[in-house]
Design brief:
Number of domains: 3
Structural class: alpha+beta
CATH class of the largest domain: Mainly Beta
Largest sheet: 15 strands, antiparallel
Number of strands: 15
Oligomer: single chain
Order of helices and strands: HEEEEEHHEEEEEHHEEEEEH
Strand content: 25-35%
Strand order of the largest sheet: 5-1-2-3-4-10-6-7-8-9-15-11-12-13-14
Number of helices: 6
Distance between the termini: 113 Å
CATH topology of the largest domain: SH3 type barrels
């Protein structure tokens, strides 16, 4: 991560409406609130406050036709009061520890989850989809609170405040899962040796296999019949399968799945019973029809004898 980027050209844009990134999944419009040593703060209507790591920013475009003033917005004030004493992007992450956050705006690596821990060069995120995921900090492009989508376009200004309140309340029921701890990302990879891991969430460089070895510069992954050597720098994130029999979150998901299966079985049995009743009714109607036909035939033959 380049820590010597000159940000003087951005400081003159503070308070103005800008667009960060010309295009792509990270592109957002909003008011530039603050510029720090290695990050900037953008206030958006859709996602509240978004913090960008400046080492990834390729362009910032001033929108001279639009004026914005979100300095009095309650959610903006709450976020800024929390991070006002932070000097680095890592400090911001530490201040948001235990909160529900979103890593990146879009793309295969973007995830919503609980920020469990922050170390010197990586963070630990718990997600419903992938479990515990470890992100290298230098590959995190942006950060925000996890805000639910609002398709109607109303109430966007309150989304972030509602998310913050929800974070505080949900911590009461959240059971923190087990995860590997290490002082840095290199040591973390060494602690994952001989485990089945997933490197990167998606895209052409995503792969799964057994982590056979790890050094300072690369790791060795056994992918079925292939032996893959991957440069550590290009690992955006990594996760591994961890048995969590005592993890209440996993138990809740299992109970929910069992409940869905039971409901499905009940519906299936109910449908079978209805089909059986329908078949029985058809058979009964058929038998009655046969009896009526026999009586008519017999009656007709009697008249012919007379």
């Amino acid at each position: 991560m380049n820590e010597n980027i000159n940000l003087n050209y951005l400081e003159s844009l503070q308070g103005k409406a800008v667009k960060v990134f010309k295009g792509g999944p990270e592109s957002r419009k909003g008011q530039l609130i603050s510029v720090k040593s290695d990050y900037l703060v953008l206030s958006t209507n859709e996602e509240g406050v978004v913090i960008y790591q400046t080492s990834h920013i390729k362009s910032v475009i001033e929108d001279s036709t639009t004026s914005m003033n979100t300095s009095n917005n309650e959610s903006v004030m709450t976020t800024m009061s929390m991070i006002e004493e932070t000097n680095t992007f890592s400090d911001v992450l530490t201040a948001m520890k235990d909160q529900m956050v979103r890593i990146d705006r879009g793309g295969p690596e973007a995830r919503n989850g609980r920020l469990l821990d922050v170390k010197g060069d990586y963070l630990v995120l718990y997600t419903e989809k992938d479990g515990v995921v470890y992100y290298q900090l230098e590959h995190v492009k942006s950060l925000s609170y996890a805000v639910s989508d609002n398709k109607n376009g109303s109430g966007n200004n309150n989304n972030q405040a509602q998310a913050q309140n929800g974070n505080t309340m949900s911590m009461v029921t959240f059971v923190k899962p087990e995860y590997v701890e290490a002082d840095n990302f290199t040591e973390l990879l060494k602690n994952m040796r001989y485990k089945w891991v997933t490197i990167n969430r998606g895209g052409p460089e995503s792969m799964q296999g057994v982590l056979a070895d790890s050094s300072d510069g690369h790791l060795v992954l056994i992918c079925e019949k292939e032996v893959c050597r991957i440069a550590t720098f290009h690992i955006r994130n990594i996760s591994y399968v961890l048995k969590q029999e005592n993890n209440q979150n996993a138990e809740n998901n299992q109970n929910q799945q069992e409940s869905n299966e039971n409901n499905q079985n009940q519906n299936q049995n109910q449908n079978e019973n209805q089909n059986n009743d329908s078949n029985n009714q058809k058979n009964q109607n058929k038998n009655n029809s046969k009896k009526s036909f026999s009586i008519k035939m017999y009656s007709g033959s009697t008249k012919s004898r007379l």
